[in-house]
Amino acid sequence: MSRAAVAGAHRVVVKVGSSSLTSLEDGLDAGRLRALVDVLAGLRAAGREVVLVSSGAIGTGLAPLGITGRPRDLATAQAAASVGQLRLMAAYAEAFAAHGATVGQVLLTADDLTRRGHYRNARQTVDRLLALGVVPVVNENDTVATEEIRFGDNDRLAALVAHLAVADALVLLSDIDAVYDGDPREGAASRIDTVADPAELASVVLGSASRNGVGTGGMATKVEAAFIAARAGVPVVVTSTAQAAAALAGEPVGTLFPAHGRRPSARQFWLRYASRPRGQVLLDAGAVAAVRERGASLLAAGITGVAGDFLADDPVELVGPDGVVVARGLVSYDARELPALLGRKTGELDPEHRREVVHRDEMVLVRTRAGA
């Protein structure tokens, strides 16, 4: 059923890794890039919409700079990304132009997805590009990223983009054709056709590095990203770039992660997967039960402490007395305001402080060690 859903998906997000497009020795492989574009152009010709999440900027920039190995420092990686991103986009623009298509570059940083306003703006931009018939080409903005740059590790970004773009399917492409129950390079291993639950992979050791040295987004990151998208109602296929056409046609290649559950609202999804908590609010046992079991809002009476320096409307973690994170939500007060309200019933508070600390509509439950 889900493979048919992939084949019939109107809006598809396709992520391609650095290892499928570049090598340390030669940089960008224009032939492989054109082959992928031919497949995606075929989808557009059939009336489907495509969002491409492409790694490869750093790998593309290494050869022109005469760098023969993976950069060890952030500045060099950013310099390579600066050179490579221009060449990569020029190659995509030329390849898609041969099919009469226009591309638009969308560079995102973690901040663009962890801040709610930025997330909303990115969503509107992608949606408008598609409405104009443009192919959005998304990549992390490696030239200004402040965290350690990882080659080709855009899998989680692709899962977030799949929800942001309201996609009907996600295909994660690399140099490995599926998830296996072992390492096929080291002995007998069988392809796993479908994974519906993380427990099915409990005994499987997933690799964390690519084969050609330019990608670090190994199978472990792809599986993590696939579950994020699947839980958000988007079916996912993990396979190799060589099998992209077959996967998009619904053929039994790669590994399928069927969609399950309802597609969450943009705010719920952002809170669970894209927000960056600015602090913690500590709950007593009664408040934990109210939030977790009754779906109640969090009131000041059930709070025992505050950690961090957050502002009103910032995302925070709600933590039980055992140290387990119960939920994540948007707090209604600054961190400096809350201490005076702790443990007090609503009727005891001044009128301006009687609102919920975290309203249930601004909250998502978090899976705990106990499985709640």
TrEMBL record:
InterPro entries per the UniProt record, alphabetical: AceGlu_kinase-like_sf, Asp/Glu/Uridylate_kinase, G5K_ProB, Glu/AcGlu_kinase, Glu_5kinase, Glu_5kinase/COase_Synthase, Glutamate_5-kinase_CS, PUA
GO cellular component, one term: cytosol
Domain PUA as annotated: residue spans: 279-358
E.C. number: 2.7.2.11
Top-tier EC class: transferase
Annotated catalysed reactions: L-glutamate + ATP = L-glutamyl 5-phosphate + ADP
Keyword Kinase recorded: yes
Binding site for ATP: K15, S174, D175, T216, G217, G218, M219, A220, T221, K222
Origin: domain of life: Bacteria
Record keywords: Amino-acid biosynthesis, ATP-binding, Cytoplasm, Kinase, Nucleotide-binding, Proline biosynthesis, Transferase
Any GO molecular function: ATP binding
SUPFAM superfamilies, per the entry: Carbamate kinase-like, PUA domain-like
GO terms under biological process: L-proline biosynthetic process
Subcellular location: Cytoplasm
Residues at which substrate binds: S55, D142, N154
PROSITE patterns assigned to the protein according to its UniProt record, in alphabetical order: GLUTAMATE_5_KINASE, PUA
UniProt main location, coarse: cytoplasm
Pathway where it operates: Amino-acid biosynthesis; L-proline biosynthesis; L-glutamate 5-semialdehyde from L-glutamate: step 1/2
Family, similarity comment: Belongs to the glutamate 5-kinase family.
NCBIfam families: proB
Function: Catalyzes the transfer of a phosphate group to glutamate to form L-glutamate 5-phosphate.
Protein name per the record: Glutamate 5-kinase
Annotated organism of origin: Klenkia taihuensis
Lineage, uppermost ranks: Bacteria, Bacillati, Actinomycetota, Actinomycetes, Geodermatophilales
Gene: proB
